[in-house]
Amino acid sequence: MSALRDAAMKSKAWPFEEARALMKRYEKKAPEKGHVLFETGYGPSGLPHIGTFGEVARTTMIRRAFEVISDIPTRLICFSDDVDGMRKVPENVPQQEMLRQHMQKPLTSVPDPYGEYESFGHHNNAMLRRFLDTFGFQYEFISATEFYRSGQFDATLRLCAERYDAIMAIMLASLREERQQTYSCFLPIHPETGRVLYVPIKHVDAVNATVTFDDETGREWTLPVTGGQCKLQWKPDFGARWAALDVDFEMYGKDHSTNTPIYDGICEVLGGQKPNHMTYELFLDDQGQKISKSKGNGLTIDEWLTYAATESLSYFMYQKPKTAKRMHFDVIPRAVDEYHQQLRAYPAQDAEGHVNNPVWHIHGGQVPQSHMVVSFGMLLNLASVSGARDSASLWKFIQRYAPEATPEGNPDLDAAAGYAVRYFADRIAPTRQFRQATDKEWAAMDDLRNRLAVWDGGLDDEALQSMVFAVGKAHGFDPLRDWFKALYEVLLGASDGPRFGGFIALYGVDETIALIDRGLKGELVS
What we know:
Blueprint: H1 2-10, H2 14-23, E1 36-42, H3 50-69, E2 74-80, H4 96-100, H5 120-134, E3 140-143, H6 144-149, H7 154-162, H8 164-172, H9 177-180, E4 186-188, E5 201-205, E6 210-214, E7 220-224, E8 230-232, H10 234-245, E9 249-253, H11 260-269, E10 276-280, E11 283-284, H12 301-307, H13 310-318, E12 325-326, H14 331-345, H15 351-355, H16 358-362, H17 376-386, H18 391-401, H19 411-428, H20 439-453, H21 461-474, H22 481-492, H23 500-507, H24 509-521
Helix pairs in contact: 2-3, 7-10, 8-11, 10-11, 13-14, 17-19, 17-23, 18-19, 20-21, 20-24, 21-23
């Protein structure tokens, strides 16, 4: 353990950098609560998306890194702000008209459009917990509805009433003059309609912890700020929650970064110590637009898991969290293959190499072995040319290439074969575009076909790749990239593809000859 801790204290991996910064928080004195508290926040206004998963995954990576360098126990809380009023109806859920009738009600007071749970908020919370459980995260779930109604938040809410002016001073400095006239950190929940009200507060009674306001009809009401009868606006709620729970670490997206002084200031006004925080860049869809729960753009957890194992998604989340990344279907194959490359490198690395390898952080130090003797990208191309409809069809090729491999002994490869067939059928086949070879390309491919016809070098990847290179050079392709691009476009219907020698070794020499024949005859185009 000492070698691991020593390596961790020097590691440049971002989870260890964040963990070391957090450790300084308690250099002089351990936390009175007996643990270090990590928190992630979730707004259940729509179905959970991958960005939410990424926040929990990355926080867990920092938590595990902290546990290596510190003996202080840790906890992770996933907090759902389900008292938030529904301000718009998500576009990707059923019963749109029914939902519109419940605008501005807390999400846990809006009927579930799927008819499965007590409310829309409960439904979305269940979806959040389901996909977090899929990945084996260790966390505690807190619903804001329960937090407000049970009284757990009451002491902090009373303090908000007592220190209302100080909180408002922080908030008003960040608002336009027009907004300042009507803003209050408290949002009453109407006793009759159940809606969250964005109305001016006429009076805050610091002694009795009540607020007085007029509703939309002009009727005056006085409500306690406790017991779930009021909620805090989302920015004050952030800081107040930090103070109430004594949060030590929370990360959030770049779109929150300008609010950090507000969150910190309110936490400190309420007697808390601002937590350490990390800002990550946003996820974008294939058009470069920010992923949104309400729009339903970008990938969902279920969509990723339709085509790849959970670890590949964790690997994607690990990579450069402070760089904006496009998240769409095309990133999946590369994430799978890069993850397995790191797995294969891990056994030969020392402690320093381990803590800098993404797979250590993905698996919390309990790193499995990779049995992927064929890359996911190669499996996709094999599915393309073989017309495979299931993983068993691909295994006929795999076992000729790697006789020692079996579905039982290579479970990750077996799963990847199934994913590849599905990915090809859904994502590649509908968009493939084959073309005719030019005269120059036709001559080169015919030459390659004839060399393969007399090939006696077996299924040696490198030897076959060297021969493909030699054909390209012999026919004057410069750069050689144009030669391989022609092979991909004529034979595979894509502009990019695998190492072609490896492809021949996997697919088979005779099968590749037949494929070239079809390509040269134009049969693939038709």
